[in-house]
């Protein structure tokens, strides 16, 4: 029995993805039949090779666009009207992407505005399916009953890392079993259980599907025999660190042991892999440059209009890169010229040093477009921990456990922490972001990079950057 998942993919959003595929297939198939019937236009039919080619060029861009606007995130806090707006944005993106594929390939597009009509029907179909999913609490599909062994400091991690109700949609927490050695002063809020029977009997009586080990002092205190029996009966036994990692996408840095770093470090990449990685990142940078050059010109003009023709447009700053090596990062200037007259400072959420144009550039991440040069030069990748200033990095290395571990990979324009954690400007925020950075470092892969790149579109499209 296992409850592992591919990062944020779980049974609830997998079910939603499958339902969307069924809706899209039905709309496409019956849409072509209806259009052919009413217009007497010969269109591809089910079973034809061209039918499946057109189906893929319709379905795949839509699935990517739905992911990009956050509609496969069951923790998304959005009204139904907000979801309708996101769905409309996704359809526009998918239509543009699909049209682009038709344009650069020799494939013949569907005639007589057939695609436009099908995309219009898709909006209605997906809106109805989303309404049905939300009203039936689809996010609770696959929810498991969880029992925590321990009611002290380590057990309270669940409460600290998953405060919101939406953070716990994948499991139904039955309670915390108190055992000897628990730190009672830091006991979690919730149902504290004092067993009056064996653990294995309690698990059977309450149909527990997963046991989380969160004892503050394990040696001599864990009911090993009962845990073994539960394991034999198919109950999943999970360590609290692994449970937090799986459910939140972060590593509890203040509670992991040095062995975690030793056993979870990846092998160094071969030269061939590094070359492919640079080629992949440079290709994406080139594509973004081809599409976004008008925004670059616009940013230059707006900065000059606000600060004068002689005002510098670019801003360079030293950051800490791979293996702690410093490099110069480039951005469009979004702060006043005298922003650091008193030395290096944290950038805050409502920083008074930010210019009016700078606020707009930051909101839509336009200020980071010059970092494409850093990608071409090999200083950065598209995905990775955000590079920190050496002044702050040095402080964090001495005060935050495992902070220097984030320098084992190249920094990135975007990352797992940027998707998971809001803007922060303090040591406490640096610790929280490190939890997500370590998760990325442990699980980094080509597919995870693609997932992060796609989901970063939500930040750009809906102005969530700062």
UniProtKB/TrEMBL annotation:
Question: Which molecular function terms from Gene Ontology are attached?
Answer: phosphotransferase activity, for other substituted phosphate groups
- The record places domain Bacterial sugar transferase at 279-461
How does this chain sit within the bilayer? Multi-pass membrane protein
Q: Where in the cell is it found?
A: Membrane
InterPro entries, per this entry?
Bact_transf, EPS_sugar_tfrase, Sugar_tfrase_EpsB_2
Write down any Gene Ontology CC term.
Answer: membrane
Q: Where are the transmembrane segments?
A: 12-35, 51-72, 84-105, 117-135, 276-303
* Any Pfam family: Bac_transf
Query: What keywords are annotated for this sequence in UniProt?
Result: Membrane, Transferase, Transmembrane, Transmembrane helix
NCBIfam families according to UniProt: EPS_sugtrans, EpsB_2
User: What's this protein's family per the entry?
Assistant: Belongs to the bacterial sugar transferase family.
Q: What name does this protein carry?
A: Sugar transferase
User: Which species expresses this protein natively?
Assistant: Photobacterium jeanii
């Amino acid at each position: 029995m296992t409850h592992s998942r591919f990062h944020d993919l779980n049974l609830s959003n997998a079910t939603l993805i499958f339902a969307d595929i069924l809706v899209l297939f039905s709309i496409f198939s019956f849409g072509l039949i209806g259009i052919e019937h009413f217009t007497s236009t010969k269109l591809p039919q089910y079973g034809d090779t061209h039918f499946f080619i057109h189906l893929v060029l319709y379905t795949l861009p839509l699935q990517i666009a739905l992911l990009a606007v956050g509609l496969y995130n069951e923790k998304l806090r959005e009204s139904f009207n907000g979801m309708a707006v996101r769905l409309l944005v996704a359809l526009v993106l998918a239509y543009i992407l699909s049209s682009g594929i038709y344009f650069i390939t020799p494939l013949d597009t569907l005639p007589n505005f057939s695609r436009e009509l099908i995309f219009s029907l898709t909006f209605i179909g997906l809106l109805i399916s989303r309404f049905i999913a939300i009203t039936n609490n689809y996010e609770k599909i696959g929810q498991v009953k969880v029992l925590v062994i321990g009611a002290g400091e380590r057990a309270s991690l669940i409460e600290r890392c998953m405060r919101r109700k939406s953070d716990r949609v994948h499991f139904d927490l039955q309670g915390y079993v108190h055992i000897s050695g628990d730190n009672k002063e830091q006991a979690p809020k919730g149902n504290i259980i004092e067993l009056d029977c064996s653990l294995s009997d309690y698990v059977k009586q309450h149909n527990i599907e997963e046991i989380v080990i969160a004892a503050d002092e394990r040696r001599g205190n864990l009911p090993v025999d009962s845990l073994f029996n539960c394991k034999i009966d198919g109950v999943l036994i999970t360590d609290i660190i692994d449970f937090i990692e799986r459910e939140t996408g972060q590593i509890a840095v203040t509670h992991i042991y040095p062995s975690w770093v030793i056993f979870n470090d990846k092998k160094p990449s071969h030269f061939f892999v590094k070359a492919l990685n640079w080629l992949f990142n440079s290709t994406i940078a080139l594509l973004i440059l081809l599409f976004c050059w008008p925004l670059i010109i616009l940013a230059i003009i707006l900065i000059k209009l606000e600060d004068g023709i002689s005002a510098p447009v670019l801003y360079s700053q030293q950051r800490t890169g791979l293996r702690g090596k410093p490099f110069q990062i480039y951005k469009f200037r979004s702060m006043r010229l005298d922003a650091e007259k008193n030395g290096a400072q944290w950038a805050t959420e409502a920083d008074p040093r930010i210019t009016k144009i700078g606020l707009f550039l930051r909101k839509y991440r336009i200020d980071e477009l010059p970092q494409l040069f850093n990608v071409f030069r090999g200083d950065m990748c598209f995905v990775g921990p955000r590079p920190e200033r050496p002044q702050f990095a040095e402080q964090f290395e001495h005060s935050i456990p495992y902070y220097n571990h984030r320098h084992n990979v190249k920094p990135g324009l975007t990352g797992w922490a940027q998707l998971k954690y809001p803007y922060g400007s303090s040591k406490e925020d640096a610790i929280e972001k490190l939890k997500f950075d370590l998760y990325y470092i442990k699980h980094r892969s080509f597919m995870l990079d693609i997932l992060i790149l796609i989901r970063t579109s939500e930040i750009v499209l809906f102005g969530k950057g700062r």
